């Protein structure tokens, strides 16, 4: 079936303009099926057809690489158990001599035999391997960390983007330490205290602009362990702690260490951390924030309005759903302390005056019943929390007060004129509030999920 498709592509008049192609190891695969296409290919993506190890024909690979005169990007999405197929591809690249033109390489699972071939290409006297983009989904158990460090050291000036999602290396090889990489602009990596030494961004990556960190579910990020004691890193503008990696008690330290953040992804579990976040990075443009049920009265935290007033408004909306609620009703409910041009009384989401994109999402993994989360929350028991309110103080139900309501919509989002995209996968917004935001703001994208409804922009015709 794949051969028939390739013959069809080769016969079309636009075939020479084909720059990317995805291949599967079908028996009988040969380059004659798409001879006209090969010289124009810039990217080849090798995939496996099934869990069975089906090898790409050796002659096919050699002919393919020899004739791919514009090729500069190779993706190998082949599982850990099919390592021989990956070896054959890399050997064919080496034999063809085209590796000196290769700038982007993606290998799903990097094994020792694969890394040995890459090291040979680096040591060639003529036409060495120089990568600007290198991505692996996992470093296999048989790879010595020292050897992987040595390979990265050979590419320290060339590599601009580096992705190391998982480190499966055996503990017998010791922890992995990133070498100094002055060319690196973007780094994606798994953050495991057992396998990766402290990052020390300013020392190891002096020109880093984007840092994406991954962790196991509810893994606690330690600022002191990873960054404390280092100089300020002014080049970093994008910082993302992917969902599951919890930042606890480190916001102020991060803001001081990375003062120029414009794009941020964060998971918080305490009010103290959320308040610190709202007082940091005033030049923020893109914010993706995840929170758990430990952050109650989120309307108060996001708007800066007193918690008591926010809770009363939410309860009145819930108990009087037939009334025509809107901005005027909410202002009156706030006992006249605010007018249509209200000035918020405390730190709020509106501190981000340049915010263009906002994603707020409740994450069930950050529930206070989770042992890992509960342990961190206990460390904040003695913190002086402003706007704290408990069920005993007001006779109201607070089981949903961790979800933003119309209060946040009207008194935070509606007043943020720079916002262009809003994504709330779970909220308590009324349809009226959603429509008000859509009509009064210059939004180009939105999603409000409330009361089993999903309000999104209409599809373009």
Automatic annotation (TrEMBL):
InterPro entries per the UniProt record, alphabetical: LRR_dom_sf
Domain of life: Eukaryota
Listed Gene3D superfamilies: Ribonuclease Inhibitor
Protein name as catalogued: Uncharacterized protein
């Amino acid at each position: 079936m794949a051969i028939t498709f390739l013959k069809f592509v080769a016969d079309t008049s636009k075939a020479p303009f084909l720059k990317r192609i995805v291949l599967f190891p079908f028996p009988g695969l040969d380059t004659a099926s798409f001879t006209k296409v090969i010289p124009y290919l810039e990217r080849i993506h090798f995939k496996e057809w099934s869990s069975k190890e089906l090898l790409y024909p050796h002659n096919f690979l050699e002919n393919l690489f020899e004739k791919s005169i514009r090729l500069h990007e190779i993706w190998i999405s082949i599982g850990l158990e099919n390592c021989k197929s990956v070896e054959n591809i890399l050997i064919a690249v080496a034999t063809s001599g085209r590796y000196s033109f290769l700038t982007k390489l993606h290998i799903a699972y990097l094994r020792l035999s694969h890394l040995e071939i890459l090291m040979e290409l680096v040591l060639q006297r003529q036409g060495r391997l120089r990568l600007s983009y290198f991505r692996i989904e996992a470093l296999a158990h048989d790879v010595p960390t020292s050897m992987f460090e040595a390979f990265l050291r050979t590419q320290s000036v060339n590599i601009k983007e580096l992705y190391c999602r998982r480190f499966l290396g055996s503990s017998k090889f010791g922890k992995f330490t990133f070498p100094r990489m002055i060319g690196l602009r973007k780094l994606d990596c798994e953050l495991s205290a057992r396998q990766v030494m402290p990052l020390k961004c300013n020392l190891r990556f002096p020109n880093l602009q984007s840092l994406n960190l991954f962790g196991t579910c509810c893994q606690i990020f330690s600022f002191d362990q990873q960054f404390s004691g280092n100089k300020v890193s002014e080049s970093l503008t994008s910082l993302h702690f992917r969902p599951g990696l919890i930042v606890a008690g480190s916001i102020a330290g991060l803001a001081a260490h990375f003062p120029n953040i414009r794009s941020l992804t964060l998971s918080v579990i305490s009010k103290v951390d959320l308040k610190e976040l709202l007082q940091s990075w005033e030049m923020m443009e893109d914010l993706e924030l995840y929170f758990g049920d430990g952050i109650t009265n989120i309307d108060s935290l996001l708007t800066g309005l007193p918690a008591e007033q926010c809770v009363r408004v939410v309860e009145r909306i819930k108990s009087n759903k037939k009334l025509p609620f809107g901005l005027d009703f909410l202002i009156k409910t706030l006992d006249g302390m605010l007018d249509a041009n209200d000035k918020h009384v405390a730190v709020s989401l509106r501190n981000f005056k340049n915010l263009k994109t906002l994603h707020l999402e409740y994450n069930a993994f950050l529930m206070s019943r989770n042992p890992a989360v509960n342990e961190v929350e206990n460390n904040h028991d003695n913190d002086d929390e402003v706007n704290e309110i408990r069920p005993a103080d007001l006779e109201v139900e607070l089981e949903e007060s961790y979800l933003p309501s119309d209060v946040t919509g009207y008194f935070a989002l509606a007043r943020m004129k720079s916002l262009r995209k809003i994504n709330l996968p779970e909220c308590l917004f009324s349809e009226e509030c959603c429509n008000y935001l859509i009509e009064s703001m210059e939004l180009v994208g939105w999603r409000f999920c409330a009361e089993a409804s999903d309000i999104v922009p209409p599809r373009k015709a």
